[in-house]
Amino acid sequence: MTSNPQAQAPASLEVTAVLHALADPVRLHLVRQLSESDAAIACGRFDTPVAKSTLSHHFKILREAGIIATHREGGQSLNVLRTAEMEAAFPGLLRAILLRLGPRCVREEDAPDRALNTHQSREGL
């Protein structure tokens, strides 16, 4: 069963929500991967160093801002970048941000989960 990915999108994109969502390096990395893909990407197929629960939170922020849409197909949640909607609302914004990013916009040491786990292992927790 395939649902319409636009069904979850907000009626209008708010600049503050979009900028907040794109201010996080993990979310930028997810958006970058979607921008480089020719097809929707399943939630479990992203290259990211964060835990699954944290990743779900990042997808939620991106969805609520209207940057991505997620739809279920079979047993998977597939994500797509809402490029046309972003371009219509904020011409050139997404392209400008993506052009400024290097080949990898999230390093493992920048991910909150990894930093916490590294710190805890040093402290013997």
UniProtKB/TrEMBL annotation:
All copies of domain HTH arsR-type, residue ranges: 7-101
Swiss-Prot/TrEMBL keywords: DNA-binding, Transcription, Transcription regulation
A Pfam family the protein falls into: HTH_20
Signal peptide start and end residues: none
InterPro entries to which the protein is assigned, alphabetical: ArsR-like_HTH, HTH_ArsR_DNA-bd_dom, HTH_MetalResp_TranReg, WH-like_DNA-bd_sf, WH_DNA-bd_sf
PANTHER family the record matches: TRANSCRIPTIONAL REGULATOR, ARSR FAMILY (PTHR33154), TRANSCRIPTIONAL REGULATORY PROTEIN (PTHR33154:SF12)
Protein name: ArsR/SmtB family transcription factor
